């Protein structure tokens, strides 16, 4: 097993959920930090749910962080608070990773389930920071919209409405400017009973039609969340796509110029 630097429960705010974990391999394939966000429809779950996945990525040579955030009804009033937490937590993880020898200015954002909406929304915000290079965003169980869809459960509909508040389109990847999104990797289970695969397909088509980069894979037999157990079939299938994506986008030198300060014009 490779030597790792890890630090758990790093606080970036005063609330218990405003914390993150980082895992930095001594020998790195690339210093780009992968910042990960848990699912749970912003009303349950915790960043520790992705601790095993992040640890496994670090063992494979990828600096990684699991970012916590306040939940709706538990410190967060709407999605604005959640997104603010996710952005601040990511910046704190970058700062801590720099102390451990990683590159603080290069990141990929990854979300599981509803955490994928957080990852893509934060990616568009951070892509406008000239000091950062957002190399990509990875959605595992794509949650691309805050609009209620056909067959949406009452529980999910309530979470969507509370998260949206008065800014339903401001955080929905389907309504964000495609040119503000970094390269996307969209992984969706064909047995997802919470979010239909056609929504992931709509996001993919919208981004590609705008001339931006998106890769979509529909994974057989998988539901809405599947990366939390890194050695089970779902996570292995996801990693077969995630690792080549990181290899391509996190290590391509010309992307540094391409995404520096993107969206500022």
Describe this structure in words.
Helix content is 34%, strand content 21%. It has seven helices and ten strands. Strands 1-2-4-3-7-8-9-10 form an eight-stranded mixed beta sheet, with helices on both faces. The relative contact order is 0.14. It has a single domain (4-259), classed as Alpha/Beta hydrolase fold, catalytic domain (Rossmann fold, 3-Layer(aba) Sandwich). The protein is an alpha/beta fold. It has helices spanning 51-59, 79-99, 115-126, 154-164, 197-209, 233-249, 254-259, and strands spanning 4-11, 19-25, 33-37, 64-67, 71-72, 75-76, 106-112, 133-140, 184-189, 214-219.
Could you give a short description of this structure?
With 265 residues, this protein is α/β, with parallel strands linked by helices. 34% of the residues lie in helices and 21% in strands. It has an eight-stranded mixed β-sheet, with helices on both faces.
Structural class: alpha/beta
Strand content: 15-25%
The CATH architecture can be given as 3-Layer(aba) Sandwich
Q: Record the strand order, biggest sheet.
A: 1-2-4-3-7-8-9-10
Q: Ranges with pLDDT <50 over ≥5 residues? A: 252-265
Rg from C-alpha positions? 17 Å
How would you state the average pLDDT, rounded?
Answer: 91
Q: How much helix, percentage-wise, in residues?
A: 25-40%
The total count of helices amounts to: 7
- How would a textbook summarize the main sheet? 8 strands, mixed
Number of discrete domains: 1
Say how many strands there are. Answer: 10
CATH class: Alpha Beta
Cα separation of the termini = 46 Å
Order of helices and strands: EEEHEEEHEHEHEHEHH
Write down the overall geometry: globular
Provide the CATH topology.
Rossmann fold
Q: Give the full name of the CATH homologous superfamily.
A: Alpha/Beta hydrolase fold, catalytic domain
């Amino acid at each position: 097993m490779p030597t790792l630097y890890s630090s758990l429960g790093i606080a970036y705010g005063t609330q218990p959920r405003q914390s993150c974990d980082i895992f930095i391999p001594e020998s790195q394939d690339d210093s780009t930090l992968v910042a990960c966000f848990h699912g749970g429809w912003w009303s349950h779950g915790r960043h520790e749910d992705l601790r095993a996945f992040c640890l496994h990525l670090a063992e494979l040579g990828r600096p990684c962080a699991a970012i916590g955030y306040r939940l709706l009804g538990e410190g967060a009033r709407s999605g604005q608070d959640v997104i603010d937490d996710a952005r601040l937590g990511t910046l704190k993880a970058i700062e801590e990773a720099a102390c451990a020898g990683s590159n603080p200015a290069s990141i990929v954002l990854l979300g599981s389930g509803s955490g994928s909406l957080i990852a893509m929304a934060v990616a568009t915000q951070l892509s406008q920071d000239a000091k950062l290079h957002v190399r990509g965003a990875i959605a595992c169980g794509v949650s691309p919209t805050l609009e209620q869809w056909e067959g949406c459960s009452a529980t999910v509909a309530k979470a969507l409405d509370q998260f949206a508040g008065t800014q339903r389109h401001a955080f929905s990847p389907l309504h964000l400017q495609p040119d503000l999104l970094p390269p996307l990797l969209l992984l969706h289970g064909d047995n997802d009973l919470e979010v239909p695969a056609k929504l992931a397909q709509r996001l993919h088509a919208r981004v590609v039609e705008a001339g931006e980069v998106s890769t979509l894979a529909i994974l057989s037999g998988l539901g809405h969340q599947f990366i939390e157990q890194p050695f089970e079939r779902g996570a292995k299938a996801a990693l077969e796509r995630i690792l080549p994506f990181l290899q391509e986008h996190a290590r391509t030198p010309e992307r540094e110029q391409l995404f520096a300060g993107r969206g500022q014009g």
